[in-house]
Fold this protein.
Amino acid sequence: MKIKKLLLLFILTPLLTCEVRLENDTRIMVTGVVLDQNNSPIPEAKISIATKRGSGIGGGQSQYILGEGYSKSNGSFSVISFYDKDEDFAIEVDAGEIYSRYVYKNNTEDYTPVDLTFSLGEITLKKLANFNYNVIRTSGDGNTITFRIRYIDPVCLETYEGTILNELQTYCFQEEVINRSLGNNLPNLESNLRVLFGESIEFAYSINDEPEITQIITIDEENYDFSLNY
Amino acid sequence: MKKTMTFHSITKNLFVLVILLFNVIISAQESTSNDYTEESTKGNFFSSEERQNFFVIMVGGHKPFTSGDNFMGKGLKGKSGIDFRVQMYVYKQFFIGVASGASYLDVKNQELLGNYKKTRISENYFYLGYEFLPAESLRLGVNISIDGDLRYKNTGFSSSDIADQYDSAKLNRYGFYLNYELGRHFMLYLDYGYNISKTNINTPSTVEDFFSKGKYSTIGLGLVFTIGSRDLISRFLD
């Protein structure tokens, strides 16, 4: 019986531990320039080179940082990192909460970049704002509202296969739509969205199934408050 | 830059100290040994039958000092190290040896090297050299490595799930030591080694020079045990 338990442990141990093995005798470099939407350089943006792995049976994915660095005052960066041949190799550019985030993904199981260098070129991070919206019922019981918010999602994820951009798996500043209905079950809603500063949001609503009314809202404040009573 | 200057000044001062010590010992020996002939004085300096050894075993520790505009000088900081050497006297004071040791270093700039915290360099090399006998209780040896390998074990990643990563290199080492005899078969040593690490790391061409060569010096202290009192060739000749 003991032997069976030991054998089971011996078989399960490699499945439970997902060790990340970095390439020996290898370093890569990640280069590029971080700019804002006005083409001004963004200094101190954090560049993280990472790889992902499942954390064993029933576990989720864990991210492992292989190299880190920051952009200079002119926005340029050049970060040295270890290399991992993995299907979830990623480079993230993050300039804090006030800017959008950029993620480069590639399957490096069978790919090594030319001259061991990932040249990301110019990366544009757009300034973000909060869109705080309140929809409140003031007309009494029985009244309903349906509304739709159309906005640009401030996420840019580019997926490559080698040097070729995989457009099907790339998601960069795409349009998103939120549809909600309020009524007796949930008469009021207070929520917020992270949206691009300076961009327009379409807010369309219909009260008690009447013809739809559309409002175009230009986000010109870092905290934009919007209220609608019905 | 400040650290490089400090390191250079330490090295320079150590060289000056050894040369001065060497001159003082030679002068003292010449002035106090009027009874000896010039030939016998030279003989005592280069070799001595009474003080001949066959094997010595050296065990000690060292402090590594990285230097230069390379991945070691800019990215690593020496902490400590251990040494184990065995040398055999082939003919008189001419010796060959084998050494095994390790140097422990911390990463001081992750942006230049990658996301890790520590390195252990395993050092294994063969060497040859000559040992002078400048004074009654002192031995001054110079040595050079003839074939050496280094293995960098890089640890301290962002997660314990990341296995240790290894880099390899060839070693060129130039060193000297000063032994102080406490007894016939027991000595203390102080040594200095200048190490050039020629790495096998594959890197982008823009940083190839930075990673291809690393330089570090070691200043060590330890114990010496001796075995035998005749060199190898003399055992066959006499």
Remarks:
- The domain at 2-237 of chain B is CATH 2.40.160.20 (Porin).
- The interface with chain A takes residues 110-116, 157-159, 161-163, 165-168, 199-207, 211 of chain B (CB under 8 Å).
- Chain B has six helices and eight strands.
